[in-house]
Amino acid sequence: MNTIFSTLILLLIATGSFAQVIFEKGYFINNDNQRIECLIKNQDWKNSPKEFTYKLNGSDKSEKGGLSNVKEFGVSGISKYIRAETKIDHSPMDLTSLSDRKEPLWSLETLFLKVLVEGRANLYYYEDGSLKRFFYSLSDSSVQQLIYKEYLVDREFIAVNAGFRDQMWKYIQLPGAKRISLESINYKQKELVPYFKKYAEAYHATGGITEVSNQNIQKRDFFHLRITPGFNYTSLSIHNSVYGDKDADFNHEILPRIGVEAEFILPYNKNKWGVVFEPSYQYYHSEKQIKTGTAEVNFRNIEIPVGLRYYCFLKRNVRISFSGYMVTKVGLNLDSKVIYDYPFASPLLIN
To answer: Chain-wide mean pLDDT for the chain?
Structure first.
């Protein structure tokens, strides 16, 4: 069966509350320690940036800031990055590429690190594709990576070097805590951030110099569900290499379809990308005269297209989306059948 839905590029105009990639109020600190207020193009970086685009206040000219000339930059109330020259572990994270070495594979690099928590102990984050690393610094020390590495033992078993727990126990120990309390903390942002905030708050309460970073977390709608009625332009051809008298080319039909679209917005790049699943019910019925009689088809199917959607923003609440779909071979056949009716013979049913 051929259907125009199987390879589909959609152009949609819609309204909504999605964020745009726009210039927002921010700042940067240059190599001379000058703080410069500006407008920064907030790209909601997934991978840690190597540069950013900014405009000086009152100017329409876009300029670039990067690792060579900027120590720190931030989008007010949203994100903040600092430049650090530090060792980073480049050990593979993919299970198919793990090494048998327990020690990290260090490389000295200059990076922009995202600030997650500021205080007596600071927590930072770096991401580049599958590489995800956390870093920390104390008020009197340089930036260091929190160590976490998965590796192979005897080329078969996966072991973990969770050195970050030893680092936290030695340098970022909560008052009155026991070492075992760190064993339940995993190398994840949602677990490390609360710990560092507790540490900052504890020393703030006892007179320590600390400031917890309170970045505004934008409320995002990451999941959409909608009904998607429509029409398919459909045809069906049957070719039997054994019995040529069963060949049939059925008519093209414009038939209604109904589906449910589930869209998952990817949590970066200002909500510009989404993954879409759209199971849809389709029905096709047609009759055709063939050499020896009549062929009738009843086709009922639930098709499961998978797609990728990209949004372009025209105004604050107006956007255009481009969607590309691929129809998987996984579907649900609902008693589809072809019936051959020969004169002076019982009908032949083919499922």
So the answer is: 79
Q: Is the dihedral of CA 8, 12, 17, 23 positive or negative?
A: positive
Write down the H helix ranges in 96-188. 163-171
How far the first Cα of the chain sits from its last, in Å, is: 15
3-state class of 97 per DSSP? helix
Interatomic CA distance for residues 18 and 208, integer angstroms:
40
249-306: per-residue pLDDT in tens?
776 777 777 777 888 777 666 566 778 877 877 777 777 777 667 777 777 777 777 8
* pTM of this structure: 0.62
The count of C-alpha atoms lying within 13 angstroms of the C-alpha of 15, restricted to the half-sphere facing its C-beta, is: 1
Tokens of 234: 């459909």
Q: How big is the chain by its Cα radius of gyration, in Å?
A: 30
What percentage of the chain has pLDDT greater than the value 90?
41
Q: Are 55 and 104 in contact (CB under 8 A)?
A: no
For the segment 103-136, what is each residue's pLDDT rounded down to a tens digit? 999 999 999 999 999 988 999 999 998 899 999 9
Tokens of 58: 């009152």
Q: Which residue has the tokens 């590796």?
A: 151
Strand partners, 212: none
The dihedral sign for the CA sequence 196, 202, 203, 205:
positive
Q: Give backbone dihedrals phi and psi of 164, rounded to 5 degrees, phi first.
A: -60, -30
How many Cα atoms within 13 Å fall on the side-chain side of residue 118?
12
Tokens standing for residue 313: 């923003």
Measured CA to CA, the distance from residue 344 to residue 347 in angstroms comes to 9
The rounded distance, in Å, linking the Cα atoms of 234 and 255 is 7
